[in-house]
Amino acid sequence: MTDLGPDDEETPPNLARVFDHYLGGDDNTLVDREFAAEVDQVLPGMGDLCRGHRRFSAAVVDHWCAEGIDQFLELGAGLPTVDHVHTRARRVHPGARVAYVDEDPVAVVHARRVVARHEGVSVLLADAGDAETVLAAPEVRDLLDLTRPVGVLAVGVLHYVPDAVAAEAMRRYREALAPGSGVAISHLTGVGRPDLHTWSTINHGGWSYAPTLRDPEDMDPWLEGLELVGPGWASAPHWVPAGAVPGAGETASGLWGVVARRPDRRG
């Protein structure tokens, strides 16, 4: 368990800590748990959505580790707790290097406390939609070797990014990746989930930006030039690297997930 600082108990609810609470973690406060209880009155499935994102992330990291990838960039990482990327990857690759990115100053301060004792792990305060800044930052540039494969995770973050910004950011991240690298995205959808349509129009009072609900046809351009892995677009919590996987509409998970790979150079 990571101790919260004395000021954390006095801050407003924080998205990263609320997410940690839904995952069953200890890095949250009473105000976060009380706020989660209020959210549950509007969207009883919020906990399932959070756990769905994490199941997807875990399956992807396991797949990439099996493929030999030992470097990871997580966009919109929140708090690196509850079996997060560096913990999971290092079960296979003890020297795995992980750069976390988040734009929430409170989450970043706390995240840096969480990983302070871990060599080869960094936390960058930046907007994941500003790919130029992210890729040029020492926390990323000096930690990850972009001439080797890297796994980029955009799990539960792009639905808070405007269309044009998301498209340009994903183009820049794709271009920066070496052959053999991977990109993984999980994203909210209203397919089979009318409650998410309602939630996306609610004034969230500053807790988060209202999410944009997208479907594969909206996001396919983000993967231009990449090869889909396994089932392609699928219900994120059910994603596996091989075999058939139902879509988000069939499972009503509220989440699309996809994994793609930058092809090896030919010739």
TrEMBL record:
Sorted UniProt keywords: Methyltransferase, Transferase
Organism of derivation: Actinomycetospora chibensis
InterPro entries membership: SAM-dependent_MTases_sf, SAM_dep_MeTrfase_SAV2177_type
Pfam families, A to Z: Methyltransf_19
Molecular function GO terms recorded: methyltransferase activity
E.C. number: 2.1.1.-
Membrane-spanning residues: none
GO biological process: methylation
Domain of life of the source: Bacteria
Family annotation (Gene3D superfamilies): Vaccinia Virus protein VP39
Protein name as catalogued: SAM-dependent methyltransferase
